[in-house]
């Protein structure tokens, strides 16, 4: 299904320009979900039995009252047996050191977002594939750790069946709501169906005998797209209104991937705790700080862990600390690497009481105040704007789909602050700007002159929702005088090929993160051949994939295979710039 044209800033927002005529039926979908609870009931949980609690939310509230920290790790190898061994192994090895994790985030593969009956032949990433509810149960029974089903459950076409399986496996935290707004499964265009499936899943969750915490990772949603951190906080408030006021479920927020500037990271946590007093899920590790050298990444790990531990020491809000293994930038970490990261973080956190007297929130508090005030104004303007445009604010499906179709850029243009004097730039804006300047400073003058003279036309796109690399590429290439064509985010290969053909581009530059580098390039090259055009294809980011003939369920480096397919792998932006400097206008070779 093709999306309608988005509204344009300066033109009155109207429901008819965004949604199909007639009611969406969110109320009926929610009722179907509640009725489904007659056969889908929350299963037993080794974690809850060990903690003597009815839900993870109850455990979180206890830990807040006792001012105790909790810790989160990620599990998600392609083969379920590998994940089951990791589930037990990480817990047991850390428990021997008195450092057992409290919760595991379960990294389902993105192909799990498709309905089970339609998964065959769909592209796969590097995450876990669970074939049945029995697989969900077998996984979570391996150790007394809280199962957190986040990515590719809510917000997906398979939301109902995946939420049902998570509940049967004893999970009392389910997400990832933010993915609904930004993630697009390849080849799937039915956003109305996805919306109704999400609302139905929320109805199923609402009808359970204990409160289930709905998880939203703001970095996977619009918070990673807004230029102003105030808009990001305001949208978190909107999410809370949808989940807690319209649906009646508790919403726990998470953030952290792209928040690299310490004062802003601390300020956002202070403001978020005020904006949403419901216990959060976790504070995620600042993965954009990680580079190719694992040992050096321990410095990055310590830097964000110190900020997060101090934030939770100062304002307990229930989030679990997440020490990301130092190999995360290159590949899926091993059990040993997860254990090492947790032990390093535990040692730092043990000392937070001694460190706290020399730390301060003084620099962060004024930022937090500004963020909260701007967030409230953004939320209020957005809600008033949707109401004035004729959207049914009592129907969660209508509100969700409206926000998804309008999109973050348009929402911020319409409802963000008009006066930028007090704007707090989102951390990714500052960080990418700094990286862009570093790249541009390293480009030889001869290459700059060649690009300014030749002005090759380049389509820039991403294979998934992680747009960080695309933004960096666009800034660098644009300042070098290259003519840019927006290839899109989470773009399908056939759509990208058509954009290359329509624009007459000499090159296509693809940023990828989710373990589909080779299959994406192969499909893209096939589509380009079908269209009888031959722009050069460049690809950078996480260049790995799980190969059927590799003898392992872990992703492997596919750099050589990418070269054999005719693409140009680029480990650095500078590599792309050097290659583009040799492309003459109109050359498609």
TrEMBL record:
Signal peptide per UniProt: none
InterPro entries linked to this entry: Cobalamin-bd, Cobalamin-bd_sf
Limits of the B12-binding domain: 453-583
Name used for this protein in its record: Methylmalonyl-CoA mutase cobalamin-binding subunit
Organism this protein belongs to: Labrys wisconsinensis
